[in-house]
Amino acid sequence: MNSLTFKRHLIESFKSLKRNGWMTVAALSAVAVTLLLVGVLLSVLMNINKIASDIENDVQVRVLINRGTSKKQENTLRQNLAKLDEVKSIRYSSKKQELKDVIGSYGKEFKLFSGDDNPLNDVFVVKAKKPKQTVKVAKQAEKMKYVYTAKYGGASAKKLFKIVDNIRTWGIGISLLLLFVAVFLISNTIRITILSRKDEIGIMRLVGATNGFIRWPFILEGAWTGLFGAIVPIIIVDFGYVWLYRILSASLASTGYHLLTPGTFLIQIDLLLILIGIIIGALGSGLSMRRFLKI
Fold first, then answer.
1. Distance (Å, rounded) from C-alpha 51 to C-alpha 250?
2. Percent share of the chain, pLDDT over 70
3. Which residue ranges traverse the bilayer (predicted)?
């Protein structure tokens, strides 16, 4: 196809949208509703995945040091922990700091413990390179000299890793299912617009037009439908997300977790909705045209 022919198809497909009036409105509405669902689902799933990953990454190994261990022995233990391939970082927390954290979390009644009366241990807070390596690091650390015990959340941590994996798996599955439904709905809607123009297609075939020459204006028309149908969902998703971000960010701030910030995130969602709209619109038109081009 040369550039002049493609330009003609492009202009003709755009004019066809205006000529078909209410049929175009119906197709645009189907695209808009479908893409709105896709946009909302993607925004929710991406934020759930982000918060789940933050929670997952917060799982750390607390290596409690034996009471009476000297500073030299503590340094030896730190070096041994650092040698583990799975270890990303090590932070030291003295029993005095541990007591301050307990008082901050559970109340001032714990202030009666101080100095030699402090029952807590000095701690190395160890973070694994990958969250799922946390269990392995804890088991290795517990076998080391000068270690009282190594805590990582036990069954709760394993359950958390499983929940995060399920969220990601189900999220991908639901997204693919919704996209399949989108192709089905949009192709059926576009098929109705093509049915109303079957006489036009028949005339083109009678005068010797090739299948490609007949198909391309409809495919481009479907792409236009997907592009214009994405405008309203983009506006709703963008304004809705900014509004919810302002409300939820304040309540989430106290937990230490945050939603994906607007800006780059919304630009990515917008471009994705436009791309999905164009592809689904063109694909829907292409699939709908097959029955009319059979000899």
1. 15
2. 69
3. 21-46, 170-190, 223-245, 265-287
The angle subtended at Cα 248 by Cα 245 and Cα 249, nearest 5°, is: 75
- Residue 195 to residue 218: CA distance in whole angstroms: 12
- Please give the radius of gyration of the chain, using alpha carbons only, rounded to the nearest integer: 30
Q: In CATH, what class is 60-152?
A: alpha beta
Q: What is the pLDDT of residue 233?
A: 92
Distance CA 205, CA 200 (A): 9
Q: Are 192 and 22 in contact (CB under 8 A)?
A: no
What does the domain layout of the chain look like in residue ranges? 3-56+160-292, 60-152
- Which tokens sit at 257? 């977790």
By mean pLDDT, which of 139-153, 223-237, 245-259 is the weakest?
245-259
Question: Which H/E stretch holds residue 24?
Answer: helix 22-57
Q: Read off the pLDDT of each residue in 141-154 and give the average, rounded to a whole number.
A: 84
The tokens describing 207, both together, are 């005068």
Mean pLDDT of the chain: 78
pTM over 0.85: no
Structure tokens at 19: 């000529």
Structure tokens, 161 = 């890793």
Please spell the DSSP secondary structure of 39-77, one letter per residue: HHHHHHHHHHHHHHHHHHHT--EEEEEPTT--HHHHHHH
CA pair distance 122, 165, nearest whole angstrom: 34
- 264-289 vs 231-253: helix crossing angle, rounded to 10: 150
| Closest among 218, 220, 224 to 195, alpha carbons compared | 218
Q: How many CB atoms lie within 10 A of CB 226?
A: 30
pLDDT digits (tens, 9 = 90+) for 6-64: 666 666 666 666 666 677 777 778 888 888 888 888 888 888 878 777 776 667 888 89
For residue 193, give the nearest of 283, 294, 285 by alpha carbon. 285
